[in-house]
Specification:
The protein is α/β, with parallel strands linked by helices. The chain has a single domain, classed as Decaprenyl diphosphate synthase-like (Undecaprenyl pyrophosphate synthetase, 3-Layer(aba) Sandwich). The chain contains eight helices and six strands. Helix 3 packs parallel to helix 4, helix 3 packs across helix 8 and helix 4 runs parallel beside helix 5. It is globular and about 60 Å long. Bound molecules: 3-methylbut-3-enyl trihydrogen diphosphate (IPE) (2 copies) and magnesium ion (MG).
């Protein structure tokens, strides 16, 4: 018996544009990715939610390979939000240990690929000390790499980032280092977690949810939004290519006509 084949989202889409074609047309300066849907992916299979996080590793590293193939210079992925602490303790704990192990396994590979890894977010407790240490070591190991910057947003919140930037700016004003009249977009932007990162041009969210969930609120002010129904563990570089293709078809006006 033959029925219509159900497309397996994990299988690369043969109609996805070729990375060299995308590169020629000009890729976004900075892509943000909200890696969502791990729990639902697991639930669909009768597995514990944590299995979805485990499976998400392959998706992330395929996306990184794809980003390198098309020549992206900046990629920022949302790994853990300031709101995700509200999840059940065992899941939070799993995510912490899982990320520690993932970095231990993968730091050298990212380094060999020429990727500079940077963590954005509040790098403090309750993130476990052993994870903070390996985050630090990974940043140091890859600090001189220039091919692509991979920002991993961990214990990240867009509002927290703006609060931290405002606080730093206020301290500079109070100390007389900055004149209040000089407080402008550049002054605030310079105090964000990744002050040298260009604005986000393209924001991709998986799992069909259509919201930002407190991700890169300042940086994505003019980003093109692409929502893909694929659940994160099934995401592959071809999904990234399709999102970039979509981006390249959009007309951006930045308020002008
Ligand atoms: C994204 O997947 C991973 C994190 C937020 C850590 P979810 O865990 O949010 O998966 P869903 O949205 O419940 O399916
Ligand atoms: C956003 O996903 C955070 C990450 C992907 C790390 P959530 O699953 O936490 O977002 P909401 O709760 O659906 O808005
Ligand atoms: Mg979610």
């Amino acid at each position: 018996m033959t029925g219509a084949a159900i497309p397996d989202p994990a299988i690369p889409d043969p109609t996805a544009p070729d990375p060299s074609v995308l590169a020629e047309r000009g890729v976004p300066a900075h892509v943000g990715v909200i890696m969502d849907g791990n729990g639902r992916w697991a639930k669909q299979r009768g597995l514990p939610r944590t299995e979805g996080h485990t499976k998400g590793e392959e998706a992330l590293f395929d996306a990184v390979e794809g980003a390198l193939e098309v020549g992206l210079r900046w990629l920022t992925v949302y790994a853990f939000s300031t709101e995700n602490w509200r999840r059940p303790q065992p899941e939070v704990r799993f995510i912490m240990w899982f990320n520690r192990d993932l970095l231990t396994r993968r730091a050298d590979e990212l380094h060999e690929r020429g990727v500079r890894v940077r963590f954005i977010g509040r790098k403090v407790a309750p993130i476990p000390r052993s994870l903070l240490r390996i985050m630090d070591r990974t940043e140091q190991l890859t600090a001189q790499n220039t091919r692509m910057t991979l920002q991993i947003a961990f214990n990240y919140g867009g509002r927290a980032e703006l609060v931290d930037a405002a606080r730093a700016l206020a301290a500079d004003v109070a100390a007389g280092r900055v004149d209040p009249d000089d407080v402008d977009e550049a002054a605030l932007g310079a105090r964000l977690y990744g002050p040298d990162a260009p604005d986000v041009d393209l924001m991709v969210r998986t799992s069909g949810e259509r919201r930002l969930s407190n991700f890169l609120l300042w940086e994505a002010a003019y980003a093109e939004l692409v929502f893909d129904p694929v659940l994160w563990p099934d995401f592959r570089r071809t999904h990234l290519f399709a999102a970039i293709d979509e981006f390249q078809r959009r007309t951006r006006r930045f308020g002008a006509v």
